[in-house]
Design brief:
The chain is of the alpha/beta class. Helix content is 40%, strand content 19%.
């Protein structure tokens, strides 16, 4: 029996991994939702549709058994973010329900909880309190999926080849603070490498043990900030260009710089989410953990950061 996947955001950081894993599954057909069909695309590989234009989504889910929704608008003007993340997801889910799609999976984010500290938090233990338009509209997208009986996956920090926010953000912050490292900061962070997240999303989409609801999808072992910062330093030619900086000094140096304060907010308090139930009974391992995952991605990060510096 063939399982027909429709994947949104399949050209993106997470969605590309989901699509690659889905294509490797025996007995699957994979189609991508896209605003335009890429040159050279094979017949039936792409379905035309734009999340920012609900009318364009009519009929896109026809024939699909599984919808894995990875697309999201990150940043930009609030109206566009709402149109894509909230209204676009609502229209997409309505099409999935109309077409009789058996499983809807939405790859969301733990950012819908807002600012920490969160220490060992399980799904349902803290309220949704998004702190940005992006997170607010992604929380709205979650509600559309859940109301249709779908499955919502909430990773926190996703890293690996193609990451242009987590590790590059820490690298930028060290340079902005003229710091080699941050002292007095022992926060714990939930993380997952993007390849494992891709495998987990497909496994959840196919698993008879996972019905609708919310799951945290991270490696079970949190990563300490010293471990993360230490790893980032290994891929920097000039790690910070200064000395060790304590949290109080870092906050002073970041004053008036919203992006720097945002990154510091991530690093100075716990953002640790747990969900042992997700991995149990799932035909997917949470992976080897941060040390091994980062080592594999380190050459890519080094090249990316050097290229960004040169430009």
């Amino acid at each position: 029996m063939t399982v027909d996947f429709l994947i949104t955001g399949a050209s993106g950081f997470v969605g590309s991994r989901v699509a690659a894993v889905a294509r490797r599954q025996p007995g699957t057909r994979v189609r991508h939702l896209s605003r335009r069909t890429p040159p050279g695309a094979g017949p039936g590989e792409f379905v035309r549709g734009d999340l920012g234009d609900p009318l364009s989504l009519r009929g896109v889910c026809a024939g699909a058994d599984v919808l894995v929704h990875c697309a999201a608008r990150i940043g930009g003007d609030p109206a566009t973010v709402e149109a894509v993340n909230d209204l676009g997801t609502r229209a997409l889910v309505e099409e999935a329900v109309r077409a009789g799609v058996r499983r809807i999976v939405y790859v969301s984010t733990a950012a819908v909880y807002g600012r920490g500290p969160f220490r060992g938090v399980r799904p349902g233990e803290v309220p949704i309190a998004p702190a940005s338009a992006t997170s607010r509209t992604r929380a709205a997208a979650e509600r559309h999926v859940l109301d249709a009986g779908g499955l919502v996956l909430r990773p926190h920090l996703v890293y690996g080849e193609g990451d242009q926010w987590v590790v590059p953000g820490v690298a930028w912050l060290l340079g902005e603070l003229s710091a080699t490292t941050l002292t007095g900061c022992e926060a714990l962070l939930s993380m997952i490498d993007v390849d494992t997240l891709g495998r987990a999303a497909v496994a959840a989409a196919l698993s008879p043990a996972h019905d609708g609801g919310v799951h945290h999808v991270n490696h079970p072992e949190p990563v300490s900030v010293p471990e993360l910062v230490g790893a980032v330093r290994t891929v920097l030619d000039e790690p910070g260009g200064g000395a060790a900086v304590d949290v109080s000094t870092a906050l002073d140096r970041a004053a008036g710089k919203p992006l720097a304060l945002h990154h510091l907010g991530m690093l100075t308090v716990d953002h640790w989410f747990v969900d042992d139930a997700f991995w149990k009974g799932l035909d997917c391992s949470p992976g080897e953990g941060f040390t091994a995952g980062f080592s594999r991605a380190a050459p890519w990060y080094r090249s990316f950061l050097q290229g960004r510096k040169a430009s």
